[in-house]
Specification:
Elements (H helix, E strand, L loop, with lengths): L1 H10 L4 H8 L7 H17 L1 H4 L9 H6 L3 H13 L7 E4 L6 H7 L4 E5 L3 H14 L4 E4 L3 H7 L4 E6 L2 E2 L12 E2 L2 H11 E8 L5 H7 L3 E9 L2 E10 L7 E7 L4 E5 L1 H6 L10 E5 L1 H6 L2 H8 L2 E4 L2 E6 L8 E11 L2 H5 L7 E5 L5 H8 L8 E6 L5 E8 L1
Helix pairs in contact: 1-3, 2-3, 6-7
GO molecular function: methyltransferase activity
InterPro entries: PG_1098_Fer, SAM-dependent_MTases_sf, Thump-like
Keywords: Methyltransferase, Transferase
């Protein structure tokens, strides 16, 4: 293995296709191990900085790295669980351990954590990594969620589960299409745990997931640097009146906004042509569907019914998203845009007839610069161009 480790150290910054080509000339080396380690290192540099800084971490197959939580989102989950009433003395079980990122960060906050993983190879890698990291309060179970539930006699304060797609080549939109099937298992899980925290992909519909699950008490829609990463559902044994939905965009300054769907439905919406300032909510708010609640909270007017951009005469502070000063509003016509002399701009589409690529081509504009151009549909269903700068 010394030769493989030496190869990894020399080539860890190169692209995977380039590495694969080089390895084709070295049949004596373990190709799969090297590819997994270099891919893991490259992903971990930003996603898992603590793991990246430890030279003894072993990385598994590519899919386990792709699907695992980031260090920041895993840390955020520990805060959610602490705020749900658990103490440092609590015992948590991770029913779908995977690469173990969530398990590891849970173990830093709670007295005892149990990790489940049916894949023997991945199970052994994670067990070795946790030993390397000095995580000594983790119990390991090489079994499936279903088999564990059938044979377990232990009680836990909370169960964490991250169901995956049945077929990795297909997108799924319902929890019942994932494995383990949390819809079928939630009753059994609540027999061994007081609460369940469920992680899902942002692609799943939130309202549909609430209908499928029972007793959802709280939801978190989590973005990292304005990229929506996951949606979390806290399930209790008692039926709440309605789940509170918390949106958070983790960044240099965390942006938080909370609402519920009843209030969202009852909000009145005011519309306006673009005024002096333009607002684009962060991705968590857009994913959660707080389209009217956000306008009411910050006293903003909406550009159009299905155009999720907002406007105001005066600048509103602490808006959970991006804020812009409007310079001009034009009809979507290349001749009108050409008169502005803008050759570079950052283009965003909201409820628009063309894609960003099509807009760039029509307006003869490339990416970059200090201008932010929003292509949108106005109140009269006309395509418009809103030229702005950051406020």
């Amino acid at each position: 293995m010394e030769k493989e480790i030496a190869f990894i150290e020399i080539n860890k910054t190169k692209s995977l296709p380039e590495i694969a080509l080089t390895l084709s000339k070295h049949p004596e080396l373990d190709k799969n191990f090297i590819i997994n380690q270099i891919n893991g290192l490259q992903k971990a540099q930003k996603k898992l900085p603590e793991f990246y800084q430890n030279n003894n971490i072993i990385y598994p197959a590519t899919i386990s790295i792709e699907q695992c939580s980031s260090e920041q989102t895993a840390t955020f989950k520990t805060k959610i669980i602490r705020h749900s009433g658990l103490t440092p003395e609590s015992h948590l079980i991770d029913l779908t351990g995977g690469f173990g990122i969530d398990t590891y960060y849970f173990s830093k906050q709670f007295k005892e954590v149990t990790y489940l993983e049916p894949n023997v190879e991945l199970f052994n890698v994670v067990q070795q990594n946790f030993k390397t990291l000095g995580a000594i309060n983790i119990n390991f179970k090489n079994t499936t969620t279903e088999d564990f539930l059938n044979n377990n006699t232990q009680h836990f304060d909370i169960a964490y589960i991250d169901p995956s797609r049945r077929n990795e080549s297909e997108k799924v939109f319902m929890l019942s299409d994932c494995i383990p099937n949390i819809i079928d298992l939630q009753e059994e899980i609540l027999k061994i745990a007081d609460k369940i925290l469920i992680k899902t992909s942002p692609i799943l519909d939130i309202k549909q997931s609430i209908k499928e699950l029972e007793n959802v008490s709280e939801i978190w829609v989590v973005s990292l640097n304005n990229e929506c990463k996951e949606v979390l559902y806290l399930v209790d044994k008692e039926t709440p009146s309605e789940p509170n939905i918390n949106t958070i965009n983790i960044g240099k300054i965390n942006q938080v906004f909370s609402f519920n769907y009843t209030n969202e439905e009852n909000c009145s919406t005011h519309f306006s042509e673009p005024l002096n300032y333009l607002y684009e909510p962060n991705t968590s708010i857009l994913k959660a569907g707080a389209f009217k609640s956000i306008a009411q909270k910050y006293q903003l007017k909406k550009i159009a019914q299905h155009t999720h951009l907002y406007t105001s005469e005066n600048l509103v502070g602490n808006f959970p998203g991006r804020c812009f000063k409007i310079n001009t509003v034009l009809p979507y016509q290349p001749k009108a845009f050409k008169k502005l002399g803008i050759k570079k701009a950052n283009i965003t589409c909201r409820n628009f007839i063309d894609s960003v690529a099509q807009i760039k081509k029509k307006l003869n504009c490339t990416d970059g610069g200090n201008n932010y151009v929003f292509a949108a549909t106005d109140l009269n269903d006309n395509p418009i161009i809103i030229v702005t700068n950051k406020a």
